[in-house]
C-alpha cells in the first residue's frame, strides 16, 4: 500500500513539475492557432516561416446578379471550417491592367490576414492595406504582408475592392446609395470586418492604420473625408496618393457615355440593360471608362459616403484627425512623360503654352528645354515641371507639400517623406539611355516582396529594411521614430525625411523640399490639374509617336 502511495506521490510531483515548466514558458513563445473563429464561421490558415497566413476570407457577399452596382452586403455564414490557404479571385479588370491574370471574377470581395505565428500578451497593432492601380487594376494578393508582420510584430490585412465600371460607375437608377463609390464602400466594409474580427487573429481593433499607394493613397484620403468611415481607423499612411475626386455631374456624364458604349443608351432602361449584360461584355466596353492616368475613375463627391471633395474636407478641417504618414517619390511622373521623348524645343514649348496660357513664358523661363540633356530632353523637361507643379491630381511637388501643410496644421503627428533613391529598380520596358529616376510606384518593392525587390542592391536592401521598420513603428506608435535609425521629426517642426539607400536617409528642412521643386514660383499663381493624358497632349503638340 505504501509503495502505491509513493508511486502516486511521484506521479503527482512529476505533473506539478511539468505544469511549472509549462507556466514558465512566456506567452510569446506559444504558437498562435491556425483555426480562427470569425463572425461568419471558422477559417483555417497556414503557417509559413514565422507568420500565419489566412487568405481569401470573404468580407462581403459576392456583388453579382442583383447585387451588381449595389453597396456591399453581409456574407452568409458557413458551417464547418473554411480553408483560408488560397487567395480569393481578383476583381475584374482590363487585361492590360496591373496585377491581372487568371482567377478574375465579379465575386472578388476577399481579404487576407498575416499575423506573427507566436502568441503575445497584448493585441497587436494592425496595418490595413489598400492597393493601387488607378481604381481600374490591381489586387490584394500582390502584397504579401508576411515581411511587415514578422519584422514589426503587427497584423497585416490586404484587400480586394471593385474596380473600373464595377466599382465606380455612376448612372441614374443604379442604386439608392453608393452610386459611383461602390469600391469605396467595399473598402469601408473591409474596415468594418476588421473591426469585428481582427481581435480573433490577435489584432487590436483600436489601433488600425489604413494605408495605400497611388489609387490606394487616394482612397485613404477619401476615407479620411468619409463620415461613415469615422472610427474605423486610428492612423493613416498615404504613399504617392492625393485627394482627387469627381463631382456627381462629372461621374454621371462618364456613366452615360459608358452606357452608350455598352449598348444601353436608353436613359429609362440604362441600369437594367447594363445589369442584364455578361460581365465580360461590360469589361470590354469599359476601356474608355478606365481611360489613362488622368482620365480614369475616381471617388465621387456629393453623396452621403463622401459629402465633400476630399481635398475640400482637408482644407476646411472636416477630415478625420489622426496621425498621418504621407509622401511621394522624387520623380513621380517622369515615366508618364515618355510620349514627349522625341519632342523638339518648339513642340515642348507649344505643349507648355497650351497648358499654362498667360503663365507659359514664366514656366518656360524656369524650365527651359536647353537645361535638359538629349536625347530625352522633352521628357525630362515636361516631367520636371509636371512633377513640381503637382498637376497630376496634386501628386508630388508643391501642391503635395501644401496638402501636407493642411494636415499638419491640425494634426501634430504628421510625417512627410520623399523617396529619393536616384536609381531604384523599375518594371517595364525602359528606352536605352533613359534615366527613370525615382518614378511612381518605385518605392513599393522596398516595403512589399515583389519582382523589383529581388533587384535591390545591398545599399537599397538596407533602405528597404529601414523603411519596413519606419512604417512598422508608425503603425505601432503613430510615429515613425525608430531606435537605431535616423531621427524622423514631425512635419510640424518644418522637417521631412529624405529616404536614401546605404544608410543615408536623413531629415531635411522643408525649405529644401520647396527649393528642389521651385515652390516659390509655383505657389505664386493659380493653375489647374491636367485632365488630358500625356500621349494625347504630346499628339496635340505635334510630337511624333516613335
From TrEMBL:
Superkingdom to which the source organism belongs: Bacteria
Signal peptide per UniProt: 1-29
InterPro entries: AB_hydrolase_fold, CarbesteraseB, Carboxylesterase_B_CS, Type-B_Carboxylest/Lipase
Domain Carboxylesterase type B: 35-522
Pfam families in the cross-refs: COesterase
Record keywords, A-Z: Signal
Protein known as: Carboxylesterase/lipase family protein
Amino acid at each position: 500500500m505504501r509503495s502505491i502511495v509513493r508511486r502516486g506521490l511521484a506521479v503527482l510531483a512529476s505533473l506539478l513539475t511539468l505544469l511549472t515548466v509549462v507556466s514558465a514558458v512566456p506567452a510569446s513563445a506559444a504558437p498562435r492557432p491556425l483555426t480562427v473563429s470569425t463572425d461568419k464561421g471558422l477559417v483555417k490558415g497556414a503557417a509559413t516561416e514565422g507568420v500565419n497566413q489566412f487568405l481569401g476570407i470573404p468580407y462581403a457577399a459576392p456583388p453579382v446578379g442583383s447585387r451588381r452596382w449595389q453597396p456591399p452586403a453581409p456574407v452568409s455564414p458557413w458551417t464547418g471550417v473554411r480553408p483560408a490557404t488560397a487567395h480569393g479571385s481578383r476583381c475584374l479588370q482590363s487585361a492590360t491592367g496591373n496585377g491581372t491574370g487568371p482567377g478574375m471574377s465579379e465575386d472578388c470581395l476577399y481579404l487576407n490576414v498575416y499575423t506573427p505565428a507566436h502568441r503575445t500578451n497584448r493585441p497587436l497593432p494592425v496595418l490595413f492595406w489598400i492597393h493601387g492601380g488607378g481604381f481600374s487594376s490591381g489586387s490584394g494578393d500582390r502584397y504579401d504582408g508576411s515581411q511587415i508582420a514578422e519584422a514589426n510584430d503587427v497584423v497585416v490585412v490586404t484587400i480586394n475592392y471593385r474596380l473600373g465600371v464595377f466599382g465606380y460607375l455612376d448612372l441614374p437608377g443604379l442604386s439608392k446609395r453608393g452610386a459611383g463609390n461602390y469600391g469605396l464602400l467595399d473598402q469601408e466594409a473591409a474596415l468594418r470586418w476588421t473591426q469585428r474580427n481582427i481581435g480573433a487573429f490577435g489584432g487590436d481593433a483600436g489601433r488600425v492604420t489604413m494605408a495605400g499607394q497611388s489609387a490606394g493613397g487616394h482612397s485613404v484620403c477619401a476615407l479620411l473625408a468619409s463620415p461613415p468611415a469615422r472610427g474605423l481607423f486610428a492612423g493613416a499612411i498615404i504613399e504617392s496618393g492625393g485627394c482627387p475626386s469627381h463631382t456627381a455631374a462629372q461621374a454621371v456624364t462618364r456613366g452615360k457615355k459608358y452606357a452608350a458604349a455598352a449598348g444601353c443608351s436608353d436613359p429609362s432602361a440604362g441600369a437594367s440593360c447594363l445589369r442584364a449584360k455578361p460581365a465580360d461584355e461590360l469589361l470590354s466596353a469599359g476601356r474608355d471608362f478606365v481611360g489613362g492616368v488622368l482620365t480614369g475613375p475616381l471617388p465621387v463627391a456629393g453623396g452621403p459616403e463622401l459629402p465633400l471633395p476630399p481635398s475640400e474636407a482637408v482644407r476646411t478641417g472636416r477630415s478625420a484627425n489622426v496621425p498621418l504618414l504621407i509622401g511621394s517619390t522624387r520623380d513621380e511622373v517622369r515615366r508618364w512623360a515618355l510620349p514627349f521623348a522625341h519632342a523638339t524645343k518648339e513642340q515642348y514649348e507649344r505643349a507648355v503654352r497650351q497648358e499654362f496660357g498667360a503663365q507659359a513664358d514664366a514656366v518656360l523661363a524656369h524650365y527651359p528645354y536647353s537645361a535638359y540633356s538629349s536625347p530625352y530632353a522633352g521628357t525630362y523637361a515636361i516631367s520636371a515641371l509636371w512633377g513640381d507643379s503637382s498637376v497630376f491630381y496634386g501628386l508630388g511637388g508643391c501642391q503635395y507639400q501644401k496638402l501636407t501643410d493642411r494636415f499638419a496644421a491640425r494634426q501634430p503627428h504628421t510625417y512627410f517623406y520623399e523617396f529619393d533613391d536616384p536609381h531604384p529598380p523599375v518594371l517595364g520596358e525602359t528606352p536605352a539611355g533613359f534615366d527613370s529616376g525615382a518614378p511612381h510606384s518605385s518605392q513599393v518593392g522596398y516595403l512589399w516582396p515583389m519582382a523589383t525587390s529581388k533587384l535591390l542592391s545591398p545599399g537599397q536592401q538596407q533602405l528597404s529594411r529601414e523603411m519596413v521598420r519606419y512604417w512598422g513603428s508608425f503603425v505601432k506608435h503613430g510615429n515613425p521614430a525608430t531606435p537605431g535609425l535616423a531621427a524622423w521629426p514631425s512635419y510640424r517642426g518644418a522637417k521631412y525625411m529624405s529616404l536614401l539607400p546605404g544608410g543615408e536617409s536623413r531629415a531635411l528642412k522643408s525649405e529644401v523640399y520647396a527649393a528642389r521643386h521651385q515652390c516659390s514660383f509655383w505657389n505664386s499663381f493659380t493653375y489647374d490639374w491636367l485632365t488630358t493624358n500625356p500621349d494625347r497632349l504630346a499628339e496635340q503638340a505635334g510630337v511624333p509617336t516613335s
